[in-house]
Sequence to fold (428 residues):
Amino acid sequence: MLEKYVIQGGCKLTGEVNISGAKNAVVAILPATILANGPCVIDNIPDISDVDIITKILKEMGADIQVINKSTLRIDTRNIKVPEVPYELAKHMRASYYFLGALLGKFNSASVAMPGGCDFGVRPIDQHLKGFEALGAHCKLDQGMIIVDAEKLVGGDICFEMVTVGATINVMLAAVKAQGLTVIENAAKEPHIVDLANFLNSMGANIMGAGTDVIKIRGVDILHGTEYSVIPDQIEAGTYMVAAAATKGDVLIKNVIPKHLESITSKLQKIGVEVTEYDDSVRVRYVDELVRTNVKTRPHPGFPTDMQPQMAVLLCLAKGTSIVTEGVWENRFKYIDELRRMGADVSVDGRVAIIEGIEKFVGAPVKAVDLRAGAAMVIAGLAAEGTTEIEDIYHVERGYEHIEDKLRSLGANIKKITIPDNVIGKVL
Ligand code: EPU
Fold:
């Protein structure tokens, strides 16, 4: 079965849109429920395929999961006995490696297949393993499985060689029940790091300093069940902000934490977009011709790498030459080839893209090469003249809740079409 988005470009987005819970927070919080000695009720869970995969992994391991309503789950992990996530389940997503930290923290042992996820070049996990070792664990790779185990976990000092979201989260998960004090230096400061710390603290953990570059964790013996609401998705919000600007629209983006959007807001303002902040919403309004700027992605509070493709699409529509530098990932410009098919004038040299502003995109058949690149293609399609067909949209569905419904409610002409396998055979 092949699924595609078909977008008829040229409609200005107007109206209001609600932002869902944060993907990169929930993919850490759901595995973290393994550490609880009682049920956890988690609210504001986005309806995305990454969540489906994690809940499937939890269920296959023995967790009892009840759906309370469309965004709330009650998760009881007390029946999980075997700390193992097999390849068939882990291969679909990067965040499956959070099961390493959570299982290690709970059982002093974990065995998880090497993870999948978006392809941005090499994605090593050496810092995760270094962190586990600092807590007294032994790590090895055997037949594609990462195996970590410890006689007992004891708090330790870890200084990461680079700012890494994944390793910061994994070490937090492993350290919350370790004996004594763990100090993480050069920790990541993303909103989802703080959200995970708040979640764990609501279970009885003792984590201090999340959101700064030094996190201190004093181990506790027992973590209890809790009730928790996931923060809004900063990147989903930023994606709608850019979509509003690219279509010359006017959109109120609701259920956000404006502080988390500051770096995106200030870039949009710099290129001439009007952004007004309210308590828990932002209004984005196109005013006049967009002007060029430069963007360099960096760890939080810098401009997020997960907004780089969407912003690059917008800069294609800005007058003048813009330079986008990718400061986090080795290779996150694969989507530029697809964008060129729609008329973009961009040259890429390693981690730098030089974007010459164009009048407009023209619709074309393109692919979503990864999650955020797929969102960028959707934005380009919405702004383009003519029809854009986007393939491989399963990438987009990993991280955006009901994107085509949300965009349609803002006036976009987008539909998802499904081509059954027997028809694909005939077409090919
Ligand atoms: N790195 C290492 N060794 C490690 C870990 C990371 O060299 O052990 C390097 C990476 O190669 C990269 C940099 O450090 O160059 C940062 O990687 P990080 O660990 O921060 O990334 P991640 O945890 O794998 C998360 C998000 C990504 C987001 C990055 C950066 C999740 C599930 N994924 O990935 O989100 O791009 O942080 O903010 O939280 C997305 O949502 O589209 C997405 C890809």
In short: The radius of gyration is 22 Å. The mean pLDDT is 95. Residues 24, 27, 94-95, 118, 123-128, 162, 164-167, 188, 305-306, 328-329, 371-372, 399 surround EPU (CB under 6 Å).
